[in-house]
Amino acid sequence: MPIHAGMAAYKNRQEYKPCIEKVRTIEQGSNESKFCLYSHAGTHVDAPYHMLEKGYKLEEIPLHKMYGKCKVLDLQDVEDYIEVKHIEKYDLKSGDFVFLKTRNSLDNDFNFQFIYLSPEAAQYLVSKGVEVIGIDALSIERNCPQHTTHHILLEHDILVVEGLRLKEVPEGEYTSIIAPLPIVGGDGSPARVLLIKD
Question: Does the predicted TM-score (pTM) go above 0.85?
Answer without folding.
Answer: yes
